[in-house]
Amino acid sequence: EAIEKGGYDHFMIKEIHEQPNTIRDCLRGRLDVEAGRITLGGIREYAANLNNTDRIVFVACGTSWHAGLVAEYVFEELCRVPVEVEYASEFRYRNPVIREGDVIFAVSQSGETADTLVAIEGAKEKGAIIFGICNVVGSSIPRASHEGVYTHAGPEIGVASTKAFTAQLTVLTLIALKSAHERGTIDDKRFRELLAELYRIPEKVKQALDMDEHIRKIAGKYKDAHSFLFLGRRYGFPVALEGALKLKEISYIHAEGYPAAEMKHGHIALVDENLPSVFIATRDSSYEKIVSNIQEIKARGGKVIAVVSEGDDVIPQMADDVIEVPETDELLMPMVSVIPLQLLSYHIGTMKGYNVDQPRNLAKSVTVE
Ligand code: G6P
């Protein structure tokens, strides 16, 4: 096992650090920046269904559901098609409206999550076209799907998903970009710009990983808090949800992810000096707004840890702690901004002496209801 961990103390931290490579593997053979081309062998026969549909539904659980939420923003932005993101367990039981030809993406690391599998089987019977976005080759969900794309992140042993998440985001972004190009909803310049930027993501993830030691110190400062808030807007919102989930899973600390603006409608009542708020506050189109949200928390005595873009000189003056990540297009930022949150939960979990690879009560793959 020590050999399998490749010199790391845990699979989780090994897998976190593997992400520049797993994202690169995921792009290999699919992204050709020079030619301005995306090739996806897994979506051929049903590509026209994807490009012509007037509605896309993502069905998933856990971290994969968060990948679906990021994809919602990406697909709506690029393909101008309405998207819904559903918890598989709700979708399968609530008699959802499914029409012949509707496109459903099932996102699942293991490809074996029972709720996701049964949800797509039911939708398929009603005539939906299913695309499986899975990591484990030959697993049940890809077999039950019409077509799909594998995430090629390699085996993920840590129960809490890390590298599978960024691989899912990579694949879903590739699919959205390709479909937008074929639909004609993205101009050539923006398309090429995003391809070039996607190619640079592994390097930017690597730079985010270089903050590991700094994040470990921050973890030491906040590890005894009983509760955390994670706040973000737009592309930062699903990342906030994922940061909160990671912390709950790994360190058994209560945490909630929330859209930063929505905190006024309840969460702000909880804020005091004992409740740290983690902001995903990178420079993007909602930056000014999130700066005001940080001020609102500070004005109530709350502690703020902010994930910011490199060189930000505004937020460091108000936040208690900042973690810098390199800039990228806001559409691709979740792949970079989630990294510090994975590291934060890892370090808090290990400092508390927990088994981060196998947290209590959780399973890698939930194959029963
Ligand atoms: C379990 C795992 C999570 C995972 C979720 C969905 O709860 O502990 O890490 O995100 O299942 O799994 P899937 O294999 O469908 O992505």
TrEMBL record:
GO terms for biological process: amino sugar biosynthetic process; carbohydrate metabolic process; fructose 6-phosphate metabolic process; protein N-linked glycosylation; UDP-N-acetylglucosamine metabolic process. The active site is at 364 (for fru-6p isomerization activity). Its EC number is 2.6.1.16. It comes from the Bacteria. Residues 46-185, 218-359 form the SIS domain. It is found in: Cytoplasm. GO terms for molecular function: carbohydrate derivative binding; glutamine-fructose-6-phosphate transaminase (isomerizing) activity. Its main location: cytoplasm. Keywords: Aminotransferase, Cytoplasm, Glutamine amidotransferase, Repeat, Transferase. GO terms for cellular component: cytosol. It catalyses: D-fructose 6-phosphate + L-glutamine = D-glucosamine 6-phosphate + L-glutamate. Homodimer. Catalyzes the first step in hexosamine metabolism, converting fructose-6P into glucosamine-6P using glutamine as a nitrogen source. This is Glutamine--fructose-6-phosphate aminotransferase [isomerizing]. It comes from Anseongella ginsenosidimutans. The chain holds residues 244 to 612 of 612 of the full protein.
